[in-house]
Amino acid sequence: MIEILLLLLVILMVGLYRKTSTRVAALEKELEAIKVGLLSTQPVSTAAPVAAPATVPAAAAVIATEAVTEEPAVRAEPVPQAEPVAAEALPEETIAASVAAEDVAAREEAPAPVATTTRTPTPAKPKNRENLESYLGARWPVWVGGVALAFGGIFLVRASIEAGLLGPGARLVLACLFGLVLMAGGEIVRRRAMPQVSDRFSNAMIPGALTAAGAVTLLGAIYAAYGVYEFIGATPAFILLALVSFATIGLSLLHGQALAGLGLLASLLTPALVASEQPNANALFIFLGLTWVAVNAASRFRRWTIVPMLANIGIGLWAIAYTFGANDFDPMPPTLTLIVMIAGTGFFWPGAVYGTDRVAKSGWSGLLGRQPLTITLSVAIMSALPALAMLVADSVTGVDPYFASAAVIAALAALGASRAYTVWPAMIAAGGAVLNLFVVALLLLDTYVPQPVGNEPLPVVTYATEVGVSLLLGAVFTLLGFAFLKRFRKTEPEFSMVWSVLMSGVPVALATISFLNFGNLGHDWTHGLYGLGLGLVLLAGAEWLFRERDETSEGRIDWAANLVVAGSFAGFTLALHALTNGIVTTILVSVLGFAYVLGMRARPWPALPWMMAAAILIVFGRIAWEPTLIGQNSLGTTPFFNALLPGYGIPTLLAIVTAYLLKDSSDFRIRNLMQALASLASLMTVAVLVRHAMNGGVLDDRVPTLGEQSIYTLLTVGFSGILMTLDFKRPSPVFRWGSMIAGVLATANALSLHVFGLNPYFSGENTGAWPFFNLLLLGYLLPGLAYALVAYYARGRRPMPYVIMLALAGAVLGFLWATLSVRRFWQGENIADWKGFMAAETYTYSVVWLLIGVALLAIGSKLDAKSLRLASAGLVLVAVVKVFLVDMSNLEGILRALSFIGLGAVLIGIGLFYQRILVNKSGEPAAVDSQEPVS
C-alpha cells in the first residue's frame, strides 16, 4: 500500500505543477514572437533599445532585448542599459518567467548581423559537465525508481497472493491497471516536463522510466494469465504480448531508445515464453518480421543505431534456433524474414542520408568504417550465419536448403551493391557464397550411393540443383557488380575496386568448386560454356568501362576496368579447364595469355600484358601438379621429341616473344616480370628435357646421376651468361640480378654435389670405358671451363666478389678433374675410395698439382686475374703440405726423391718468376708484358 500512496503522491505533484509549467510555456512563445518582431522591424545597426510590449513583464523585456543585441564589432553606439528592477517589486509569476527566459536565451543562437557581409563565427558552446549532485539527484533516482516501480508491481501481486486477499483474476486485473497507470503517468509527466530537462537528462527521463515500468508490469501480468493461471490460451497471450511490445516500441518515439530496446526484447522473448503444442513457423517469423519493421521505423525516425543492431541480432538468432530446433524444418519462413531484414535495411537507411562521412574519411579506412557500421555489420553477419546453418538441416518441404541459403546471400549482395556504405555486406556475402558451396560439397561427399543389385547398372547421381544454384548465384554477383559500377564508379573508387573483384571472383570461384565436385572433369559443357560466357560478358564490360572513363582521370590507372579485364581472363581460363585437359589445357592457357598481349594492338589497356604473366604462372602451377603434363604412363621415351617439348616449349616460346614485344614498354614492372618468367621457363624447359633423356624417359623423384647434374650445372652457368649478355644489350634489373642468382645457385650445386654428393670417389659410380671422353669430362672439366668463361666474361661488369666466386668454382672443378683423372689412370673405371692408393699414384698427384699451379700462375699473370694467381698459390701450398706429410711417409726410394726434387724446382721457378716481376716494377725492361699489374 505504501507504493500505491507514493505513486499517487507523485501524480498529485505533477498536477500541481501544471499551472506553473503552462505559464512558462506561454512566456516562451511570447519571447519567440518578440525576437521575430525585432529582427523584421528594426535594422541591426540601430542602437536604440527595443521597448517591450505592454503584455510582457519588464524583466522579461530587458532579457529579450539583451538576447538580440548586436556583437560589439558591429554596434553603431552603445545600447542603453535598462534600469534594474528590484526582485521584491516583481510578482512571483514575473520572476518565474524571467528565469525561464534566461534559459531560453542561453540556448538560442544569436542572429547573424544584417548590416555587414562579414560574419563573425559563433564560438561553440562548451559542454556542461555534470557534477556529483546532478548524478545523484537527477539521474540515479530515475533509473533506480523505474526498476523499483516495476518490482513494486510484481511484489504487489505476490503480496496479495500470500495474504489471500484477492483471487487470481482480481490480482491480474489490478496488475494490469497498475501497469496502465504507470504508463499513463509517464505520458502525463512527459507532457508537463520542461524542455531544458528533456535536453539535459535525455537518457534519464522520468516519463521513460514510468512507461518502461508499466510495460514490464503488463507483460508480466499477461504472461502470468497464460503460463501460471491458464486463463487465456497461447494465441490470445501471443497477441496481447505482441500488442504491448509494439505499443512500447511506439512509445519509444516519445521516451527514447532505451524504451525501444525494452519493447524489442519483449517482442523477441514473446515467442519463447508462449509455447504452443503446434508451433507455426509462418506466424513466428511474420511476427518477428513485423517487430523488426516496427523497431527500424522508430529508429529511422529518431536515427538510433543500437536498437536496429539488436533487432538484426535477434532475427538472426531466432533463424538459427529454428533451424537447429525445429522437428519439421521449412526453410522458407526464416529465408523470407531474413530477406525482409536485408531489404528493409536498405530502405530504412538510405545512402543519401547515411554514410555521408565518406568524403571526410576517404581511402580504405574510411570505406571500411562508414556509418551506420553497427547496422551493416550486424545485418551482414546475422544473415550469413543462418544461411550457413540452413545447409545442415533436412527440409521437409520441396525447397532445397541450398536454394534458400543462396537466396539470402543474393539479397545480402544486392544490399551491398545498392548503398555506398555497405562494403561489409558485399564482402561478407561473397565469402558466404563461396563458403556455403564449399560446405555443400563437403556434406555431399558423405552421400551414400547404393550398390547395384545383380546386373543392374550403377545408379547415376546428378547434382543439377547444386550446379544450377551455384552458377546462378555467380551470375547475380556479376550483374550486381555492373549495377554498382554504373552508379558509383566515379564517386567510389575503392568500393568500385571491391566490386570489380567480386563480380568476377565470386562466379569463377563458385563455378570452379562446382566443376571440381559436381562436374565432368574430362569434358564439361555446362561449366565450360558458363566460363566462356562469363569471360565475354566481362570483356564487354571492360570495353564499356574504358569508354566511359572520365576525361579528368587520364593518366591514372582505372583499377576497376583493369580488374574486370583480369576477371574475363579468369572466366576464359575456367572454360579451358572445363572443356580440355592435360597438355592441351597447358598450351591453350599460354595461348590465351598471348592473345591478350596481341590485344594491345587494338586496345591500350594496361591489364592486357599482365594476363600473359598470369598465364605463365598458371602453367608453372600445372607443371608443379603434374610435371609430365599427360601422365607418366602416356609419356614416351624418345629423347627431346616427346610431349614435353610442346608442353613446355610452346608456353616458353610465347613468354620469350612476349618479353621481346614488351622490351620498349613504359611499364617497367611487367617488362621485368616477363623477362624473368621467360628466362625461368627457358631454363626449366631445357632441364626437364635433359632429365627425361638421361633417365630413360622417366620423370620421378630419383636422385640424379653426376652426368645429369652436370647438365643442370652447365645449363645454369650458361643461363647466367645469357642473362648477362641480355643485360649488356638492354640493361634490366631482372637480367642483372638473374644472372648473378643463377651463378650463385650453380656454384652452390657444384660445391655440394660435384665435390661431395655425386663424386664417383664417394658414390662408386662407374666413370666409363673411354680414357678421355668419360664421366669425369662431363662432370668436372666442362663445368670448370664454363665457370672460367663466365668469370672472364663478367670481369669489370659484375662485382669482384662474384667474379672471384666463379673463378674459384672453375678452379676447384678443374682440380678435381685432374685429380680424379689421375686416380682413374691408375685404378681403372671404378675409382671408389675402398681401393686405396698406390705409390706411383701418390707421386703423380704431386706432379699434376704442381703443374696445375704453375699453369694457373701463368694464366693469371697474363690475364691480370688475381683470383687465378690466388688459386695457384693455394694449390702450390696444398702440394707442399702433401709432399711433406704424405710423400715423405708413404713413398720410398726414387719416388720420394723425385717428389722433393720436383717440388723444390717448382718453388724456385715460382720465386724467379716473381723476382723478375718485382724488378720490372722498379723500371727495368722485362721479358713479360709490362702492362701487367702485380698483385
TrEMBL record:
Pfam name, any one: DUF2339
Keyword set includes Cell membrane: no
Alphabetical list of InterPro entries matching this protein: DUF2339_TM, UCP035905_mem
Record bears the keyword Cell membrane: no
Highest rank taxon of the organism: Bacteria
Biased composition (Low complexity): 111-122
Keywords: Membrane, Transmembrane, Transmembrane helix
Region of interest: Disordered: 108-128
Coiled coil: none
Membrane spanning residue stretches: 136-157, 169-189, 201-225, 231-251, 258-275, 281-299, 306-324, 336-354, 375-393, 399-417, 424-445, 465-485, 497-516, 528-546, 558-576, 582-600, 607-625, 640-661, 673-690, 710-728, 740-762, 768-790, 802-822, 842-860, 867-885, 897-914
Database matches in PANTHER family: BLL2549 PROTEIN
Protein's recorded name: Putative membrane protein
Lineage of origin: Bacteria, Pseudomonadati, Pseudomonadota, Alphaproteobacteria, Hyphomicrobiales
